[in-house]
Amino acid sequence: MNNNNLPVDIAKFASENNIPHSEIARVVTVHKERYVIQFGNSFLKAEITGNIRYTAQSSADFPTVGDWIRFTPMDEENAIILEVFPRFSVLERQAVGKHGEVQLIAANVDVAFIVQAVGHDFNPNRLERYLAVCNAGNIKPIMVLSKTDLLPEDECKDLINEVKKRIKNIKAIALSNETEQGLDVLKAELESHKTYCFLGSSGVGKSTIINHLLNKNVLETKSISESTNKGRHTTSHRELFLLDNNSIVIDTPGMRELGITDSTNAIDVTFDDIAELANACKFNDCTHNNEDGCAVIAAVESGELSSEAYENYLKLKREQEHFSSTVYEKRQRDKEFGKMIKSVLKEKKRSKPR
Ligand SMILES: Nc1nc2c(ncn2[C@@H]2O[C@H](COP(=O)(O)OP(=O)(O)OP(=O)(O)O)[C@@H](O)[C@H]2O)c(=O)[nH]1
Ligand SMILES: [Mg+2]
Ligand SMILES: [Zn+2]
Question: Which one, out of 37, 220, 300, 303, has a CA that is 20 to 30 A from the CA of 26?
């Protein structure tokens, strides 16, 4: 079977490392440490080698949805994952409830559709947070305003304008799964062999959009009030699908928390107008909190910069600094622990009777 639809970066890596295309597959879903990989048109259940498990330094070293991997088949249905290829992009967030750790959402994604529904889900602050996550991971973001059937058309336009005013250069698509208006605009974005991920709160219509793209009801969709267990998400895991035009889409469960990690300049890229203003601050290391001669604060005062965007910028910066310092402390603790183990072992050796 051939498998010659590899992205350029992956094909390059394979040829540099003499890996035959017959050994390359993509991770479609992950359940704990059990994986499903896709090779051509076939799907195999897969596990990782002990080597991957023991050399992994964090959860980021385990395969995730969207990863390209090298595998060896065991039989018709099962395979072993031997190696995870370097990722050209990653979507990651702070692992919920685990300080200083990241959780991968997906890998090798080209474009993320950030979906917000009209009504109380619409939230530019949260949109900026998603943008920072995309910018950190080398992923092009596109905003999707969903459920436009629930709001008069001019009010939908107002929401899009509000987004565009606050976030320059963002592409935004308004659509409704009910009337199907705008779905063609989203479809026109999809290029073959590129990977698209859908992000956004639970119930905004991510899986419904993907069902439309697949032209069938593959994914379960449900309103929050329909589900027996209140607040339970309908989509419970991340999964990758191949569309007829050979684009790939990844569905994700709605995420309540999207803590940003310590990627260096994602926030400045997201708030590029603030980064631009900062060039005119009096101090090079201005934090734009309360310094004299701060051009950012001046822009807020003159109304040139929205105070909501400014507040959100400071909030995300604080969060990122907190994450970085937690990671640093964790590394120090791990180091101390390593030193202690070493000295105990040394002591043991020394006291061993000869
Ligand atoms: N009125 C209206 N309802 C929609 C639209 N799109 C989806 N819905 C409804 O919204 C509910 C949630 O849709 P889902 O597609 O399951 O939402 P989701 O984003 O996948 O949610 P999670 O899987 O929980 O993250 C369902 O009852 C859909 O029928 C839309 O455009 N308009
Ligand atoms: Mg869903
Ligand atoms: Zn400043």
Answer: 220
Domain co-membership, 158 together with 233: yes
CB contact at 8 A, 299 and 313? no
Q: Ligand 1 center to residue 225 CA distance, Å? A: 11
Does this model's pTM top 0.85? My answer is yes
Tell which of 37, 53, 84 closes a domain. 84
Distance 171 CA to ligand 3 centre (A): 28
In a domain, 310, yes or no: no
Q: Is residue 67 situated within a structural domain?
A: yes
Name the closest-CA residue to atom 14, ligand 1: 205
The best mutation among 177, 199, 210, 227 to test binding of ligand 1, ranked by most ligand atoms within 8 Å of the C-beta, falls on 177
The residue to mutate among 208, 219, 249, having the most atoms of ligand 1 within 8 angstroms of its beta carbon, is 208
Ligand 1 centroid–CA 33 distance in Å is 29
Measured over the CA atoms of residue 112, residue 118, residue 119 and residue 122, the dihedral's sign is positive
* pLDDT tens-place string over residues 201-238: 999 999 999 999 998 777 777 655 454 444 566 777 88
- Alpha-carbon gap, residue 177 to 32, rounded angstroms: 32
Angle in degrees, CA 125, 128, 134, rounded to 5: 150
Same domain, 126 and 47: no
94 and 179 in one domain?
yes
82-140: per-residue pLDDT in tens? 999 999 999 998 877 777 788 899 999 999 999 999 999 999 999 999 999 999 999 99
